[in-house]
Design goal:
275 residues, 9-stranded mixed β-sheet, two-stranded antiparallel ribbon, 11 strands, 37% helix, 25% strand
């Protein structure tokens, strides 16, 4: 196996099993070297905790890029998660100047869910996130994020396959080479992913689980990025990522409200990617 080095750029919540505290161990478990660039540091994530600390690291991005360029450090892949508007241009610069030949870009446009933007994002933020999606090899939006990216009002249920196909077509018009659309459901008992290369769309579904947990999107995106670098096809990587999310949820006790016990699925992940 040829060694690959992936750089993931997103915030780090010191407690809470999300963002970088998920990406680093999961991608490492895939057998891929994982470098990190924290966009911000939080004491804990913002979902369900009554308070938190926050340190913005935007000013550090250009300094780190300059040092990497001086040292000749490059990356075979980039995976972005939760970032703010002021960080889009610095991230695009890092992707240009620190890319090894053939480097791929995986963009998880973390900004919205359940029909609404996350707190702190203004109405014009999706247009800025669309700039990060332009030219990306893979984008991984949920239904809400996908709609905002293309300027549509989110539709979360009652849609037919032609809606998903039209939405994916619009996402490709942003310049994304592959679209991996999560949260797709055509019947109540199944939830899955639509994977498109711009020519055809394939679907992967799992039984819908009743529990909704923080950090599952980070598990999905991290497994997907690692599996892609291990040579899996986009559909194979998406299916593996969904299986690992389901396994993580099922391994999490009800009292564990702030995330999922993704650590429990790491041995299975490593075994399925062995070879």
């Amino acid at each position: 196996m040829t060694e690959k080095r992936l750089l993931t750029i997103q915030d780090i919540s010191c407690v809470g099993q999300c963002s970088l505290t998920v990406a680093l161990p999961v991608i490492s478990a895939c057998g891929v070297e994982c470098a990190i660039l924290p966009s911000a540091v939080l004491s804990n994530h913002t979902g369900g905790f009554p308070s938190w600390t926050f340190r913005d690291l935007t000013d550090e991005l250009a300094k780190i890029e300059a040092k990497w360029r001086e040292l000749g450090i490059g990356f075979d892949a980039f995976y972005t998660g939760y970032v703010c508007q002021a960080q889009i241009d610095p991230i695009l610069s890092i992707m240009r100047t620190c890319a090894n030949p053939g480097a791929i870009r995986v963009v998880d446009p973390v900004m919205a869910d359940n029909g609404k933007l996350y707190p702190g994002f203004e109405a014009d933020f999706p247009a800025q996130m669309a700039r990060l999606c332009e030219g990306a090899d893979y984008i991984l939006p949920n239904l809400t994020e996908a709609a905002f990216l293309v300027g549509w009002k989110p539709v979360l249920d009652g849609y037919a396959p032609d809606y998903i196909e039209a939405l994916i077509g619009k996402l490709h018009q942003l310049g994304a080479k592959h679209v991996v659309l999560t949260g797709v459901s055509f019947e109540s008992g199944l939830l899955g992913t639509a994977v498109s290369d711009g020519e055809s769309i394939a679907y992967d579904f799992n039984p819908r689980l009743a529990r909704v947990s923080h950090g599952t999107g980070d598990v999905f995106a991290s497994v997907f990025a690692g599996a892609i670098l291990r040579g899996q096809s986009p559909l194979e990587a998406a299916a593996l990522a969904a299986d690992m999310v389901c396994a993580s949820i099922q391994a999490t006790p009800d009292s564990h409200w702030y995330g999922v016990a993704f650590e429990q699925m790491i041995p299975e992940l490593a075994q399925r990617l062995k070879g």
